[in-house]
Structures are given as structure tokens and as C-alpha cells.
């Protein structure tokens, strides 16, 4: 297994389905038999980008639904155009895995609106303030079983705030692995390798006392990200009945690129 990639390609079937082996770098913070939500999300984005691609369009909104635990095993990804169109189209991708009972199931699903692009540089504007630069960030020792897991160790972390601080948590991160062995990361794939950690960046809870798993993530991108580093400013709100919501802004080193929301299931350990 590769120690520099989240997935190793195993081939493509005649119907276009791609097969992958999952590496140890996909390991979740919540269990050593399941994948963290970030690598499957990025793999679904890769499928959305490659589904009937067009040079004059790009992904503008992606919704990832995590339908169940994604095992660290061989998986399959398939994609299709759900709603074709010249200016706007909807593309769909599904990640399939074999469950404990030996039955194949869809473990995650991604949908993406893809829009035809046009020159609007004259009116370009970001409504959110830029994140403080990496030069103001600091490394934080991520110690304990929650942090010492495959996916978490695959990222380089630079924190602008303390973990669990008042207000939004803020950090910069970049993956030290590629998504698929032998392939460079696309800008949007790189963003999604990091984006799913937003609810952890914005949490106020001690993971030794609480679990907070997200069931989804929705990302709106008004600009294609650039560079190797992804910035997140995020904060999680908690309701009185075991449900939370993370909301945040995603950045590159030139400024904001979009926003993210996640639904979070909160439980006392």
C-alpha cells in the first residue's frame, strides 16, 4: 500500500466504474476500520470533475452525503450526468463498498452543479474577509488517540487560533499525499481533501468526552482555489437534542473561495 496516496487505482470496468484500494492514510479519527470523510469526498469530486468534462464549465456547488461508514477496503466509484444542459448541468457520483454482511452498498454520494463559465473579472468580489496569512500561524502538537490517526497525520497543520477557542477556529492545512496514486491533485480535489475537517476546526467539544460526526458537507465555490494551502475559518453550533451544525469559510492564500456547511451528530461518549 502507498504511504503517499489515499487510494491506489485498480482499474476501470467497461461501464466506466473505477475501482480503488484504500490505504491506511484514509483512517478516520472515530474508528480504525472506517475512513475519514475527507478522502471519499475528494474522490467523489474527482469523479464529478471527470464525468463528461467540458473546458467551458466548472463545479460551483458540491453536496456530499455520507450514507454509512466507508470501510478501509476496495471501493468502486461510478458517475453520470443527471441533468444535462448547456449553461447548467447536474452531475452525480457514488462510492460503493462491501458491507460487513458481504452486500455491496452505496456508502457515499456526491452531487455537483456545473456551470458554464464567462468573464466576470471586472466585478469580482469576496464578501468574507481574508484569513490571516500563514506567517502568523503556529504549529500545535496534536497529541492523543483522536489525532494520531491515518488521515490526520497526512495533513500539515498550521493554526491561527487555539483548538476550542471562542469564536471561529482558524487554520491552514495542506495534504502531504495525493488523492490517487500517480495523479496530481486538481485544485478542487485538494480543497476537498481538507474541507471535511471544518467541524473539527470549529468544535468546542473535547473529543475524549464527545463524538461529533458529520453526515454531510455542502460547499459553494465562487472561485477556483489556487496553491497548495487551504484555509478554514469555521465554528460549530450545538442544539439541545444531539444535533449540531458547522458553518465556515474556505480560503486559499489570495482570499476566500467559498463556504461550507455540515450537519453534525453529537453524542456523549
Automatic annotation (TrEMBL):
Residue span(s) of domain Acyl-CoA thioesterase-like C-terminal = 145-265
What region holds the Acyl-CoA thioesterase-like N-terminal HotDog domain?
Answer: 27-114
Q: What Pfam families does the annotation carry? A: 4HBT_3, 4HBT_3C
Transmembrane spans: none
Which SUPFAM superfamilies did the record assign?
Thioesterase/thiol ester dehydrase-isomerase
Recorded hits in InterPro entries, A to Z, give: ACOT8-like_C, Acyl-CoA_hotdog, HotDog_dom_sf, TesB_ACOT8-like_N
Query: Which superkingdom is the protein from?
Result: Bacteria
Name by which UniProt lists this protein: Thioesterase family protein
Amino acid at each position: 500500500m502507498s504511504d503517499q496516496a489515499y487510494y491506489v487505482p485498480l482499474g476501470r470496468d467497461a461501464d466506466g466504474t473505477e475501482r480503488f484500494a484504500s490505504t491506511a492514510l484514509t483512517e478516520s479519527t472515530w474508528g480504525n476500520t472506517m475512513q475519514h470523510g475527507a478522502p471519499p469526498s475528494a474522490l467523489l469530486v474527482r469523479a464529478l470533475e471527470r464525468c463528461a468534462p467540458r473546458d467551458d464549465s466548472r463545479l460551483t456547488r458540491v453536496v456530499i452525503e455520507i450514507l454509512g461508514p466507508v470501510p478501509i477496503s476496495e471501493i468502486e466509484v461510478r458517475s453520470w450526468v443527471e441533468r444535462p444542459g448547456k449553461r447548467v448541468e447536474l452531475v452525480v457520483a457514488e462510492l460503493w463498498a462491501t458491507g460487513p454482511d458481504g452486500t455491496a452498498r452505496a456508502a457515499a454520494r456526491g452531487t455537483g452543479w456545473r456551470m458554464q463559465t464567462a468573464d466576470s473579472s471586472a466585478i469580482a468580489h469576496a464578501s468574507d474577509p481574508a484569513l490571516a496569512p500563514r506567517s502568523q500561524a503556529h504549529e500545535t502538537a496534536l497529541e492523543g488517540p483522536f489525532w494520531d490517526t491515518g488521515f490526520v497525520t497526512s495533513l500539515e497543520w498550521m493554526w491561527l487560533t487555539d483548538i476550542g477557542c471562542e469564536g471561529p477556529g482558524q487554520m491552514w492545512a495542506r495534504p502531504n499525499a495525493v488523492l490517487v496514486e500517480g495523479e496530481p491533485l486538481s485544485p478542487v480535489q485538494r480543497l476537498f481533501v481538507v474541507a471535511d475537517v471544518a467541524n473539527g476546526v470549529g468544535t468546542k467539544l473535547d473529543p475524549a468526552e464527545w463524538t461529533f460526526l458529520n453526515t454531510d458537507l455542502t460547499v459553494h465555490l465562487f472561485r477556483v482555489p489556487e496553491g497548495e494551502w487551504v484555509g478554514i475559518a469555521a465554528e460549530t453550533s450545538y442544539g439541545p437534542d444531539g444535533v449540531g451544525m458547522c458553518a465556515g469559510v474556505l480560503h486559499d492564500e489570495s482570499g476566500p473561495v467559498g463556504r461550507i456547511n455540515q450537519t453534525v451528530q453529537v453524542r456523549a461518549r
